[in-house]
């Protein structure tokens, strides 16, 4: 079975001290004319983590990623990638799937992958086996000799993904990797990302579809208007933005809100498409409330409402008084 | 292999090792050449439709009408044309420009017009005789021309102050669009008729005068180490032009492909994938090197064909091997300059259509040598030529014209020009690299020249 194991090199930076973070960013700024695309970004991505960059289109995710990749350069600030001052010094150790998909249309699939692998420093002796191994893994071995232009968009995306990982990078950066994929290929790519992460590769992926980040990531970095507004593990974010609410689907669909409001600990009840959303009073735990409700109302389903990243994001951007917790923490290089 | 060389090889392979390039670059020109060599002489021998019509003649001299009618008769013209023989071209060889021109004019002569002369009498009114010429064109037939010969065309009516007799001549009126060759035939017949009549009138034998006035010198010979050979007039002029066109062709083909591939990589968004593996400078250098190989291949193939042609014509010694060395060196600098500009333009635009406006300064650089090579080749040591050969970015082309000409420039001039080429190549390459770095990831509205200059300053 074709297995993925990242090639690793010792990091030596800043006086020869080994670093544990794959990426460290301090005070990064980037403007395009009048537009400030990234503002005062601080970030630390630990080795082996799976980080999700989320935010709406135009938030600054791609600009940040391009600066990490040294494709564009910051106006201000410092960054270190895999212990080096610039990604240029460690391009062979980084895999990158850009947001803008592109392949040489007239080139054959296998030749394209081999060409990209060569540029990434894969030894000639391993080129063919590595390329064919990956093609088989993503179900494209039968199109190896076809021209890239003959492939569907989803297939081209998988070819590009192979080009990003074929050299077994220590750090993999995926910019909107799921866009344009059907559900089957989305699941395939998700499984591959998990497998690569499990093998020790640090992964950053950006998306504006927050549900995708929820499904994959351990850590979330939320970016809005060029600023980092959230940077925490997913569990911590969920507990911090816990709405203290339950979702209830009663057996009797005709139940009214007055009956629900009469239960001790229930502060409010709103009917939604999925059933009733019940807001709890301060001091009542969800387990207490569930027991009380289940005791008084015949229940088809009841569960604690988990905040979605989308809800959290909307809450943050609509709350002018929101102050990020990390604002005073800073990151030292 | 380094990444730059990997990119260079892909650039070369994806351009030159394709059917399109091989067919367009070599097969089609070869086929055209074969057709020119084999079919052109046959086509030139093929006679077109002959002109039929009437020549009205008013002969005020009263002695020429009969002779002119004889000279314009189809039989006389046919006999005259048989005297002119087409130059012999050996099968498989290319006719020289002089031979081609000679064949063309003589082939035209072979289309013998079928003319009849209508003698209108001395008293005829010339204005009335012109009337038939006003209807239609020469292709319609009928009266094609009216010749009015002066009364004193043969016998002088007066003498000049120095005692030399003054003669009249003739006027020729023709229908619109009458072929030049037919007009020449009519003019030659009348002129010869008048000339011979004058000589006879003066008691001289036309044959004797012809023999006395005709000087038939043999072909000029060039003396070389290998022996003597016919001198080819114009070769000394054509050679510098040939070198410049060869260099220009190689530079332009390489540069044009560089522009196209850069725009393609940008528009297909593959450029960002590449930039994750290599730096913009590595990418640009690799692409320039790759297309340099394409331009070099073109120059090698076409140059070899040219040199082989000179060998076959035993003219190989007209090219000094040192000229080829200078050709390679100046080609390198000229290519780097043009290719850098092309790469910068390609990186700045989103599609080929948008490149047109930014191509104007590049095209100006390319057109200037075309416009200037002839005056430089005619006077290669003149001030104009010297100045042109020091003026970047056209100096590489102009110096090459001078080097290939009959008057080789002094070595210091060649070296100074080479130095200027080196410095200007470096400056253009640096500026282009800055535009390339900024432009590659810029999408949307294509920049104008002002924006490009801003990019150069900010990068």
Number of domains in the coordinates of chain A?
2
| Secondary-structure-derived class of chain B | alpha/beta
Kindly report the greatest chain-chain contact and the residue count on each side: A-B, 28 and 20 residues
Tell me the helix content of chain A: 25-40%
* Residues in helices of chain B, as a percent range: 55-70%
- Give the count of helical stretches of chain B: 18
List unreliable stretches of 5+ residues of chain B.
none
Compose a concise summary of this entry.
With about 325 residues, chain A is α/β, with parallel strands linked by helices. Helices cover about 30% and strands about 25% of the residues of chain A. Chain A has helices at about 60-70, 110-120, 125-135, 155-165, 185-200, 210-215, 235-240, 255-260, 285-295, 310-320, and strands at about 20-30, 35-45, 50-55, 75-80, 95, 170-175, 200-205, 220-225, 225-235, 245-250, 265-270, 275-280, 300-305.
Give the secondary structure arrangement, pairings included.
The complex is a heterodimer of chains A (333) and B (459).
Chain A lengths: L20 E12 L2 E12 L3 E5 L6 H8 L7 E6 L12 E4 L11 H11 L4 H14 L15 H13 L5 E5 L7 H16 L3 E6 L2 H7 L2 E6 L2 E7 H7 L4 E6 L6 H5 L4 E7 L2 E6 L5 H11 L2 E6 L4 H10 L15
Parallel strand pairs in A: 3-7, 3-8, 5-6, 6-7
Antiparallel strand pairs in A: 1-2, 1-4, 8-9, 10-12, 10-13, 11-12
Helix pairs in contact in A: 2-3, 2-4
Chain B lengths: L2 H14 L2 H27 L6 E8 L5 H7 L2 H10 L13 H13 L4 E6 L6 H5 L12 E7 L8 E2 L5 E2 L3 E5 L5 H22 L4 H8 L7 E4 L2 E4 L4 H33 L2 H6 L4 H33 L8 H28 L3 H7 L1 H19 L4 H6 L6 H10 L6 H29 L9 H10 L1
Parallel strand pairs in B: 1-2, 1-3
Antiparallel strand pairs in B: 3-6, 4-5, 7-8
Helix pairs in contact in B: 1-11, 9-11, 9-12, 9-14, 9-16, 11-12, 12-16, 12-17, 14-16, 16-17, 17-18
């Amino acid at each position: 079975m074709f297995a993925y194991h990242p090639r690793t090199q010792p990091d030596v930076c800043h006086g020869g001290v080994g670093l544990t973070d794959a990426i460290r960013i301090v005070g990064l700024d980037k403007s395009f004319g009048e537009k400030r695309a990234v503002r005062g970004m601080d970030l630390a991505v630990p080795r082996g983590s799976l980080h999700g960059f989320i935010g709406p289109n135009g938030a600054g995710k791609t600009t940040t990623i391009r600066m990490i990749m040294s494709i564009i350069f910051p106006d201000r600030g410092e960054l270190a990638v895999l212990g080096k001052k610039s990604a240029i010094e460690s391009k062979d150790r980084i895999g990158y799937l850009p947001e803008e998909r592109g392949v040489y249309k007239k080139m054959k699939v296998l030749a394209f992958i081999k060409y990209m692998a060569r540029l990434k420093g894969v030894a000639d002796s391993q080129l063919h086996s590595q390329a064919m191994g990956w093609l088989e893994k993503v179900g494209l071995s039968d199109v190896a000799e076809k021209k890239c232009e003959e492939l569907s968009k989803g297939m081209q995306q998988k070819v590009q993904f192979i080009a990003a990982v074929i050299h077994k990078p220590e750090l993999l950066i995926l910019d909107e990797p799921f866009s344009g994929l059907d559900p089957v290929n989305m699941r395939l790519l998700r499984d591959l990302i998990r497998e690569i992460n499990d093998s020790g590769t640090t992964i950053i992926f950006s998306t504006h579809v927050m549900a995708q980040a929820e499904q994959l990531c351990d850590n979330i970095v939320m970016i809005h208007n060029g600023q980092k507004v959230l940077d925490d593990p997913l569990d911590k974010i969920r507990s911090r933005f816990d709405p203290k609410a339950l979702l209830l689907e009663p057996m009797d669909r005709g139940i009214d809100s007055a009956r629900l409001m009469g239960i001790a600990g229930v502060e409010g009840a709103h009917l939604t498409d999925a059933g009733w959303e019940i807001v709890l009073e301060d001091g009542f735990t969800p387990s207490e409330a569930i027991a009380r409700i289940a005791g008084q109302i015949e229940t088809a389903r009841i569960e604690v409402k988990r905040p979605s990243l989308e809800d959290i994001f909307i809450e943050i951007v609509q709350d002018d008084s929101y102050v990020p917790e990390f604002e005073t923490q800073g990151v030292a290089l | 292999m380094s990444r730059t060389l990997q990119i260079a090889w892909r650039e070369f392979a994806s351009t030159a090792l394709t059917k399109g390039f091989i067919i367009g670059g070599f097969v089609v020109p070869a086929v055209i050449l074969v057709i020119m060599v084999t079919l052109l002489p046959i086509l030139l021998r093929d006679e077109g439709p002959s002109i039929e019509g009437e020549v009205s003649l008013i002969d005020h001299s009263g002695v020429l009408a009969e002779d002119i009618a004889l000279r314009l008769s189809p039989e006389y013209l046919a006999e005259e044309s048989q005297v002119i023989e087409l130059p012999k071209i050996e099968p498989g060889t290319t006719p020289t420009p002089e031979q081609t021109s000679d064949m063309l004019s003589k082939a035209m002569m072979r289309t013998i017009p079928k003319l009849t002369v209508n003698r209108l009498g001395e008293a005829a009114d010339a204005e009335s005789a012109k009337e038939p010429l006003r209807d239609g064109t020469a292709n319609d037939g009928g009266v094609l021309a009216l010749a009015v010969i002066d009364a004193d065309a043969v016998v002088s009516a007066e003498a000049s102050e120095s005692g030399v007799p003054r003669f009249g001549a003739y006027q020729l009126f023709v229908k619109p669009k009458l072929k030049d060759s037919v007009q020449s035939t009519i003019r030659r017949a009348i002129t010869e008729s008048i000339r011979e009549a004058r000589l006879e009138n003066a008691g001289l034998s036309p044959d004797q005068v012809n023999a006395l006035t005709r000087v038939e010198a043999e072909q000029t010979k060039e003396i070389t180490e290998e022996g003597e050979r016919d001198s080819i007039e114009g070769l000394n002029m054509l050679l510098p032009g040939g070198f410049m066109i060869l260099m220009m062709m190689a530079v332009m083909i390489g540069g044009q492909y560089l522009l196209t591939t850069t725009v393609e990589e940008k528009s297909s968004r593959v450029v960002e994938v590449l930039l994750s593996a290599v730096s913009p400078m590595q990418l640009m250098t690799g692409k320039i090197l790759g297309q340099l190989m394409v331009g070099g291949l073109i120059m090698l193939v076409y140059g070899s064909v040219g040199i082989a042609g000179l060998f076959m014509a035993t003219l190989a010694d007209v090219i000094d091997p040192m000229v080829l060395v200078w050709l390679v060196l100046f080609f390198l600098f000229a290519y780097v300059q043009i290719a850098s500009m092309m790469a910068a333009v390609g990186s700045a635009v989103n599609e080929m259509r948008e490149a047109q406006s930014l191509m104007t300064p590049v095209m100006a650089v390319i057109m200037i040598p075309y416009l200037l090579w002839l005056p430089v080749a005619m006077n290669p040591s003149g001030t104009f030529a010297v100045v042109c050969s020091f003026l970047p970015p056209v100096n590489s082309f102009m110096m090459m014209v001078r080097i290939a000409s009959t008057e080789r420039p002094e070595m210091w001039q060649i070296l100074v020009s080479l130095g200027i080429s080196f410095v200007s190549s470096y400056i253009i390459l640096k500026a282009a690299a800055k535009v390339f770095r900024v432009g590659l990831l810029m999408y949307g509205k294509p920049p104008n020249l002002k924006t490009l200059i801003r990019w150069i300053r900010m990068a």
